[in-house]
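#struct-queue
[09:14] JT: dropping the first one here, sequence first, then the structure tokens:
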Amino acid sequence: MALRIRDLTVSYGRQRVLHGLSTGDLRRGEVTAVVGPNGAGKSSLFRCIAGALRPGAGTITLDDNDLATLSRAARARATFHLGQDLAPRVALSVFDVVLLSRKSLAGDFGVRARPADLAAVEAVLHELAIQGLADRPVSDLSGGQRQLVGIAQALVRDPQVLLLDEPTSALDVRRQLEVLDLVTALTRRRTIVTLAALHDLSLAARFADNLLVLDAGRIAAEGAPADVLCRSCTADAYRVVLGLHPSPLGHLMVDPSLPPSRPAS
């Protein structure tokens, strides 16, 4: 039971951004951190999985079912891509914003909400412990609260694949830990496939079950964080030297440094 990507090629016009990319099994109940320098292809990969970008070649399967064979509505139910932008600052309440995400699956915006939809919204707000924000306008929320609302918009649709593009952007340290701890717990509890694009390698090492390192549209390394981060190809992808050591709390810490300058000849 897993998401699998085989020989995926994606281009924007004449510019190829993913080059025959293949992964191992990205299993349900596990978080895979997708890391790599800017421009490595992380967002393009997520858009392709979600169906917003059509590949030139290759397949993406979920539990051996080819996602390309699904209708647009079925693909939207199976996958959810939460982009880098937080939930928009709108005057609508948190409850209504999450409800609209739920109703968008059926395209019935003009139809009165069904009891099942209202119950689903209430359930996900309780699951994320933000039921106290239900009547608050999204425009009044902090960045961390808006990030949780974005996750609620995803979960209320009950996706099988959750794609999080920089879920900790613009959050303080405490909120980063809270959001990733929550994402990990939800992934386990709902037995979904979660991919999270992260820039902070120490956070990726701490919370992810697997790391997928992209470099110029290709997979440089894949596997358990402790294994992947010690490989020279991972450091080469970032053009840095990576030092690894345990934190006082027992977590793997990543210490990047610029490579030594070459002496002038």
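[09:21] JT: and here's the second one, same format:
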Amino acid sequence: MIDRQNPEAEIARAAEAYSNWGRWGEDDVLGTLNFLDAQKRREGAALVRRGVSFSLAQSFDMDGPQKGWRRRTNPVHTMLDTGTDAALGIQGFPHGLGGADDVIAMPLQCSTQWDGLGHIFDHGKAWNGRPAEQVVTSDGDLVTGIQHMAPYVAGRGVLLDVGRVFGGPDGELPDGFAVTEQHLTATAEAHGVTVGRGDLLVVRTGQLSRARRQGWGEYAGGPAPGLSFTAAGWLHRTEIAAIATDTWGFEVRPNEFETAFQPLHQVAIPNMGLLIGEMWDPDALAADCAEDGRYDFWLTAAPLPITGAVGSPVNPVAVK
């Protein structure tokens, strides 16, 4: 149980109880990705049997869910060279060569993405207890930039389709549904799968399925199913390397305290060092898992090595 009237005390208690500061040395820049070692990668690679693959990414286009909150917009895709330019012969290339080029402008967290370790602070402290102002400046994340994670996010993926287990006939959890440790462990048991050290965990709530059917609505920042603040202990104890959901904000919204904003982020990122993914699309994978009864797979989900970034777009690929 949590005291819903006292978020300050609850966040402080959880931050202290589930801190990984110093666990991998004072210079660490990977956080819980340290749990994903060579053995876990071999274990993940061995899960490939049929060779069928699934992209877990949403689209990156102007029809996305963003509405401008904190200047987050949908991607703007612009052509620099087109087939028309080639047909008109105005590109300046010899012997009939033509080509096309394009550019995209977007916030790094506007669609399927990872939250880097420099994304969230707790009382002015970044991951591993570093002063936030010394970590992220106008030049970017000078210490834990997401480029450091680019080689490492590949291993055993596990899907927990909580929507299918607890969401009724449509397989969708209602907005405001808080996914607790009990829901997670019961889902794992129902799927016949284990979750543990070094795993890359994907949690499906079904909210994205609903948004596809009904329209984006308040998907970007509004009410949503998601992880309960009370699940922080489970996230810490299982020693997973990362977790991603099909929702905008990973944790349940409205948040479980009377006055709070993303309190689980405040514990998980700067204190636990947990890599968090948001707006993933596990629907096709979930359907296949339900059909063949296997809920673990090889998963690769490297962030773009954008120097100094506190988040990154990603195209996660699950292979079974």
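[09:30] RK: nice, looked through the second one.
[09:31] RK: The mean pLDDT is 97.
[09:31] JT: good to know. The chain has ten helices and 15 strands.
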